[in-house]
Amino acid sequence: MASFKDQLSSLVYSTDGGDQRGRQQDDNEDEARLSALDGIVRLRRETSGRKGKGVTTISGVPLPMAELRTLTQALKKRCGSGGTLTRQGMIEIQGDHREALKAELEKRGFTVKLAGG
């Protein structure tokens, strides 16, 4: 039987979607996601599933997840609004900021295309 200290130090519950080897799984998901991209960053304005609230979605950014997090923070600060990074590598910025985001991403060297409505 394990000691009381060992019983207290084990993982009981985690909100992470992966297993306890999450780092290795994240690296594999990053490689798969990056290999499927065509190098064009797409900006869309979406309202579906958000009770009429519009968000600008950015997909196809050819960066690993760690760099996407810092890019998300910089873009949110540039637009002065909230947003999030999804597990699929899509950035969502609250509001319609397509032109400002296009200018910022092109300044950073990405090929940007306005997609959708």
TrEMBL record:
Keywords: Initiation factor, Protein biosynthesis, Translation regulation. One of its GO terms (molecular function) is translation initiation factor activity. InterPro entries: DENR/SUI1_TIF, SUI1, SUI1_arc_bac, SUI1_dom_sf. It comes from Larsenimonas rhizosphaerae. Residues 1-34 are annotated as: Disordered. Residues 1-13 have a biased composition (Polar residues). One of its GO terms (biological process) is regulation of translation. Residues 45-109 form the SUI1 domain. Pfam families: SUI1. Belongs to the SUI1 family. This is Translation initiation factor.
